[in-house]
Design a protein that fits this description.
Keywords: ATP-binding, Cell membrane, Membrane, Nucleotide-binding, Translocase, Transport. The chain has 9 helices and 20 strands. By secondary structure, it is α+β, with helices and mostly antiparallel strands. The strands form 4 sheets. The chain has a 6-stranded mixed β-sheet, with helices on both faces. Strands 13-12-11-14-20 form a 5-stranded antiparallel β-sheet. A 5-stranded antiparallel β-sheet has the order 15-19-16-17-18, with no helix packed on it.
Length: about 375
């Protein structure tokens, strides 16, 4: 394992009985000093991954390595990992200082060292001067900062965050996204963040693992995941998408919506059935003559910064459009899009197969 990889999962499965497998044959690596997000719907296995890293449970099969060392049997209190829970798990009878100092007192650090470390941790989370404040007197955002200070004061190599923003209102949640990202950059340690909120994942992460039914569907940077979804699940879960059936006529040419279009994807078989993805913001409302597709408007909602327009093409495919232009329900409009806006997905393709196809295609293109 490379020195830069701090965590490695090797064919890890977690089952509770013969009928309940929550994580199935999962392998991945976590690099040191990055912000990772485990993203997926409820029950997909993301919190299980977090608990396996923390040492709160052991894998049923496979191995987990920390800095190259097998840690399957290493208890939680022996790992250089701290967890920030969804409810923060603060002690209501202790003030801010004592909450942050709790772990250090358990380890029997000297009083002066504890005071210095707690004050430093509170400065990191912008709570300097709050040492004597009672937890009951803190806002939701402040409580979260206390929980993070308690995590970082022990100087862990990894901080695990289990949906810590879910209880906050929208404005505070957005503010805390920026604060958490900036804190991770200042600390320079690995953050592994669990959420089911795709906007949160896209905004905060260096890399995202998209989980579904105990498996990793796709991993990559936010841009990779958003622009190049591997399959329908990822395309549909990460943002809003128009997904329609199509046929790959040849490299760079795809047919859908009763028409044939130039695109930028290759490596498919001739006349292969595919799925085509176009994001709503990549569709431009234009005249019927200038449009590449003709759509009859079925509904329209104002979303503040744009109109959300829904319509259907001649084949009955539904199209969602985000536009600053208004449309009229019941009328036909033209939709224009660039070839780069079209993303073609092979049916049933895994991430590994996708990577191999892309590598083979790019290799053949370079040879030519």
């Amino acid at each position: 394992m490379s020195e830069q990889h701090i965590i490695r999962f090797e064919n890890v499965t977690k089952s509770y009985d013969q009928d309940t497998t929550v994580l199935e044959n999962v392998s991945f690596e976590i690099e040191r000093g990055k912000f990772y997000t485990l993203l997926g719907p409820s029950g997909c296995g993301k919190t299980t991954v977090l608990r396996l890293i923390a040492g709160f449970m052991e894998p049923s099969e496979g191995n987990i390595y920390f800095n190259g060392k097998l840690i399957n049997k290493i208890p939680a209190n022996k790992r250089q990992v701290n967890t920030v829970f969804q409810d923060y798990a603060l002690f209501p009878h202790l003030n801010v200082f004592e909450n942050v100092a709790f772990g250090l007192r358990i380890k029997k650090w000297k009083k002066q060292v504890i005071e210095e470390k707690v004050k430093e941790a509170l400065r990191f989370v912008n709570l300097e001067g709050y040492e004597k404040r009672e937890i009951s007197e803190m806002s939701g955002g402040q409580r979260q900062r206390v929980a993070i200070a308690r995590a970082i004061v022990n100087e862990p190599e990894i901080i695990l965050l289990d949906e810590p923003l879910s209880a906050l209102d929208l404005k505070l949640r957005t503010e805390m996204q920026y604060e958490l990202r900036e804190l991770q950059r200042r600390l320079g340690i690995t953050f592994i963040f669990v959420t089911h909120d795709q906007e949160e994942a896209l905004a905060m992460s260096d890399e995202i693992f998209v989980l579904n039914k105990g498996r990793i569907e796709q991993s990559g940077t936010p841009t990779d995941i958003y622009d190049e979804p591997i399959n329908r699940f990822v395309a549909d879960f990460i943002g809003e998408s128009n997904i329609v059936p199509g046929t790959m006529k040849k490299d760079f040419v795809v047919h859908f919506g009763s028409k044939t279009f130039d695109c930028v994807d290759g490596g498919f078989n001739e006349n292969e059935a595919v799925e085509v993805v176009i994001r709503p913001e990549d569709l431009e409302i234009t005249s019927l003559e200038a449009g590449k597709l003709k759509v009859k408007v079925d509904s329209q909602l104002f979303r503040g910064v744009h109109y959300e327009i829904c319509g259907y093409d001649e084949d009955g495919n539904e199209w969602l459009v985000h536009s600053t232009k208004k449309a009229t329900v019941g009328t036909e409009i033209g939709l224009y899009f660039e070839p780069e806006a079209i993303h073609v997905m092979r049916l049933g393709e895994t991430e590994e197969e996708f990577d191999k196809r892309l590598e083979a295609y790019e290799g053949a293109a370079n040879e030519k």
